[in-house]
Amino acid sequence: MMAWLVRRLVASLAIIFAVVTFVFILIHAAPGKSCGQIEFDVDPAVCDQLTKQFGLDKPLHVQYWRYLAALAQGNFGYSFSLHRPVRDALADTIPFTLQLAGAALVLDFLLGLGLGIYQAGRVNRLPDVVLSHATLFIYSLPTFWLALILMLVFAEEFRWFPVGGPNDAILCPVVDSLYCVADRLWHLVLPAATLGLVGAAGTARFQRAAMLEVANQDYVRTARAKGVPERRVVLRHQLRNALLSFITRFGLAFPFVLTGAVLIETIYAWPGMGRLAFDAILTRDYPLVTATALIASTVVVVGNLLADMLMGVADPRLRVRASADVEIATA
Amino acid sequence: MRLGNWLALFVALVLAAEIARLTRQRALRRERWRRFFKHRTTSWGLGILAFLAIVALAAPLVAPFGPGDQLGIVDLRNHPPSWAFVLGTDVLSRDVWSRVAWGARVSLGIGALGALVAVSLGTLVGATAGYYSRWVDALLMRGVDVGLALPRIFILLMAVALWDGLPFAALVLAIGLTSWLGTSRLVRAEVLSLREREFVVAARALGAKTGRVIFRHVLPNAAAPIIVSAALGVGNVLLLEASLSFLGIGVAPPDPSWGSIIAEGASTIYTAPWTILFPGLAISLVVMSLNAVADGLRDALDPREEAA
Predict the structure, then answer these.
(1) Which ipTM score applies to this complex?
(2) Which of A183, A222, A329, B154 is deepest in the core (most CB within 10 A)?
């Protein structure tokens, strides 16, 4: 188990390293010189000086080495558009994305698992058929469109929830009280619901299929035959095994939430990392763009690692096989 | 909408229903395809896809106006849906239905082309990795791991930032190049198990060249997951294109794609919600239909069901 874990850890680090390298290559493969000769009429002397100042006259491998060394120290460079270190910009925005993603994932998993289990218990009966169609529809919605529709209905039409920012813009930057915590949650409802509902629909479809897959197994039939109460059959025999495939989905939820965050945060003016990334595109702020991409991929890799570890805990077969050192990495 | 447009639309609807009905009728004669239509949603999905494909092809007939026609900037802005403008007009007094109809060409076109690029590449890489195995496999699959670690919207954002916007062909290519990873894993797994089967070993023993073995013996037997992932792929690519266009870095206005119509309508959602409602419904319908069809295909092509 330990050896397997170490191997997964090393593999994860290698992936992050490869992503860093890929991003470096992408930047240097892009057309254009280091200072904007196209857009502006820059004095060549100034241009030379700038090139030298940023170390862009050095050979590529030296630049690559410097880039790695800087990253290793947590230095993501300096944002052109915000005129501040990228690290500070990230530190300001990441908590907001964590709140949004956390709320969305909780809704996604709780609602999705619940619906999936509920439906699997009533296959092809009316509630299941209705929910199957509903989840198919919601799962197919573009998140950005659902965001606009929810905003239109619940913020504009009914005026139940606020939009535009994470807080009461007048009071909360000044005071720091319980009211503002509640206010934050209130502002979080629509963005988190948008992302969480689409995710939950996917999770429900997935979980329903996983439960049904397990339902025909011999051990479930045996459990029923020997008189185990239905509730226990579902929870201990079916769910326990169906959760294994759910863990795989858990790992896949991270890229989904990150992608959604770019769109949702832009629409709801949520000052998180996704919006930061998007704003960085509009201003062609490369250090900021690449830093957000690196953070995003790190999150995905950590998510996968987490899923692998959960799998190791949840599936005793893996522990045995892992000690026999059989390749079980990505299934 | 003139009478001719209504007529064309009606013909499109009948044609689509007929296509769905005929496919179903023919399919019911064969056991495997009967499973394809086990759920009623599959027929509906097929019908909806056929309808929207016909609308896309016949855009000049079903749409009363051109996609960029400004009908009267003074008194026809944000006009609510009416008999003349069935889905209303947008802030620049363009007919929303005409834009959605013409946009079907762009959106469905990018969806199909992007998925074609993605599935071809994914199949090629997956088959290579699965068939050669060892270090080729290790190299390719570690590459796929790295690719999957970077959410593709970030890769595309970086590409757009660095290359200053992408022309249409480059956009399709970029989307395709970032969407093949999942397919390659599926195909690899399938090929990995197929290459040890007797008929493949036999073909090799008879001296068939590697290319022939892969393309004539292995891949046709791995068709099921490829076809399913192609169906899902079109939907995914469509959603991705819509998201990028919505963010203003995909299809550039004034060209109408369903995503860019929503993007342009987003600023007037409170005064003219119809500008975002209908293109969004179109996207949802297509993706939902593709998901339903993919479900049906999975049922039809799953060898385990055949045995049961």
Answers:
(1) 0.89
(2) B154
